[in-house]
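Schema walk-through. Below, the input block comes first and the output block second. Nothing else is stored per chain. Lengths vary across the set, and this one has 104 residues.
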Amino acid sequence: MYAVIKTGGKQYKVASGDVLRVEKLEGEAGQSITFDQVLLVDDSGNVTIGAPLVAGASVTAEIVAQARDPKILIFKKKRRHKYRRKNGHRQLQTVLHVTGIQAA
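--- output ---
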């Protein structure tokens, strides 16, 4: 059984027991989260597609940790003008462990 959920402006295909990294969500490690924006549910070949969401479906997950992505370097340069700027960014993320999928 798997589902497609929407969080942080992105879509993720999840199954029970999966560990995934999503955009930062509020909560502490060990806390449970329920995702109500389920776009698709596949229950052993019985596929339910939402329009746009599947009514009554939900995915529960447990927060494992609050983490950060590897650093992305931003470098700007204008040649022959002595202009150089170096900057870095680390996106905040939440590590989730999917515990269950409830179909409609």
